[in-house]
């Protein structure tokens, strides 16, 4: 291919890809506009308004791309990104979160007028990185996207410049985050070196070939170590134990708005990336040309049988098998008669009684063997994720028990929920080997969980932020006796907390139910038990907040604040976000179907 | 396999990269100065970069079809840019921390715990 051809094909590819890149481009445009508008117009154009308009347009783009993408899986930008319904699902999710987040911050007033442009620039930049995370198809993009999502959030954690706690939170976040990213990059370099490609689907294929050829112990060690190191980076983003240390500190030190941002959007993107990586390395498309090659081998065999000159070829049908596996690996390598004779001389003639039918069957079995050679990889990833999930879940719930600060309690609750989400990945992976549609069904349960989690956690953090604006404090004791002054808020918050526990008939129950059913199906009963026990443990600390609101008396001389739910925009915001938690708890069919449609193209 | 007796290949570069990685991790774990930790992170990133560049070369790999080619070198370039961006942000955060606490000793960042 000449230079000119290459350039023109590149131009064509870029144009095609840009058309699929609408939401991200809108975010980029909004970021530039936010930075420039202050330069040119000064304070006349509200940054909040620009950010709101930008996220709404991006959401509309994302919604409209659903129908175009449905049923296809396209690679964009020369294979850097993959755009399928899974990508679009998470794009819609992230953009919808962006819209809600802008409304939330507008009401809670954390970025004051001075900071608003910086704040939204950083938040939208981070969202852009998260969109790339869920569409990553290349190991470079995996690392770049993780960094693009992380680096602005370090700054967001420290956006309250004068506060001691805020600056401490930002420092801890940045140091842990940069360290985890460095280790992840080293893991990526090890794996890329062994599989010899950085394109994720090709890496899966290459890994399947390596695993099929009985790799030496050293190679397996390096692969395992690389996987472990990549998991460090992902576990940091997911705030999974033992890389969770930053989460409680950052959530307590940073504003509640940032807590909501990190616990919902960042976590959803991380779990999306975990699925992409797990599927990328744990699933290789069966070679498309396997069947034709098998037929070709059989026909050659028949030819060889008919021609009387080739005496050796008639002796062993195994010969055809040998050649066909070779050509399956090396592309269309046409074996000549000479080669065939040579190989047949080398291989001892065994089982001359085998008929042609067996010879035709054997190659397809061999192709299945290549695809199935990834089973140990899947088991490894599944056990690794499952182990982390079990520890994360248990630790998060245990540590949440003694907390007095509501943001810290929600941080540990976030950690525990990361564990539940990872359960779904651990449960779905082993199913890929037996039935891909079944595995897709169970990854859909994860997508469903993520959506319900948005409403639960964003509402919880919104209530915390609005209460902070009224009381100036974030201790659980400040919520005492709230039922008398603002019953509407208490009802909403109780519903959210019950849903976080997973009590029926709320959305949290439906989400937990579908995730646990995954574990039951893939036979990970130990994980299922750990999950169930954890649900019981979590009951206590969530209900402690409800108890404080409903039963406890406020401290001497302290008057509980009034937060009428009907009479303020804040209240309506909380109410509107609580509604889906109730609705999805009862009518979760449509949402689950949508999640299912999103995961249909994940395993082609 | 004796590395000293062999012609220079990817393994030698990997050995240097691994040494840089370990130095970086030890630096991150033991330094109490915030800037020292950032230096450790740079070492880790550069160790990984060395791996990528070594893997990208066809002349260093025994099995040339597993060479990353230009991909590896591009990744190294991107990582250099990203490391710079990350260092800029981390230094700004460290400066902000210093303004509030008059120290960048990370052991004294203990107001948030529990």
The major sheet of chain A is characterized as: 2 strands, antiparallel
- Can you identify the CATH class of chain B? Mainly Alpha
The multimeric state of the shown protein is: heterodimer
- The proportion of residues forming helix of chain B, as a percent range, comes to 55-70%
- Sheet/helix structural class of chain A: mainly alpha
Q: What is the global morphology of chain A?
A: globular
Beta-strand segment tally of chain A: 2
* C-alpha Rg of chain A (nearest Å): 28 Å
| CATH T-level topology of chain B | Helix Hairpins
Compressed to H and E, one letter per element, the order of chain A equals HHHEEHHHHHHHHHHHHHHHHHHHHHHH
* Percent of residues in beta strands of chain A: under 5%
Q: Residue ranges of chain A: pLDDT <50 for 5 or more in a row?
A: 288-367
Our estimate of the beta-strand percent of chain B is under 5%
Please report the total strand number of chain B as a whole number: 0
Instruction: Report the average pLDDT across residues of chain A.
Output: 83
Helix content, binned percent of chain A: over 70%
Main sheet specs of chain B: none
Shape of chain B: elongated
Number of domains of chain B: 1
Global mean pLDDT of chain B? 90
What is the CATH architecture annotation of chain B? Orthogonal Bundle
Task: Walk me through this protein's architecture.
Chain A is mostly helical and 604 residues long. Chain A has a domain at 294-344 and 353-371. Chain A has helices at residues 3-19, 22-41, 47-69, 85-108, 116-134, 139-157, 164-195, 200-212, 217-238, 246-253, 256-282, 290-306, 311-315, 318-330, 337-346, 356-372, 375-400, 406-428, 431-434, 436-471, 482-485, 487-501, 507-521, 525-550, 569-586, 589-599; strands at 74-76, 81-83. In chain A, strands 1-2 form a two-stranded antiparallel sheet. In chain A, helix 7 runs antiparallel to helix 10, helix 10 packs across helix 18 (406-428) and helix 22 packs parallel to helix 25. The two termini of chain A are 30 Å apart. Residues 288-367 of chain A have low confidence and may be disordered. Chain B has one domain: Helix Hairpins, CATH 1.10.287. Chain B has helices at residues 10-30, 34-56, 70-101. The longest helix of chain B is centred in the last third of the chain and has 32 residues, at 70-101. The radius of gyration of chain B is 18 Å and the shape is elongated. The model of chain B has no long low-confidence stretch (mean pLDDT 90). Chains A and B meet through helix 6, helix 7 and helix 10 of A and helix 1, helix 2 and helix 3 of B.
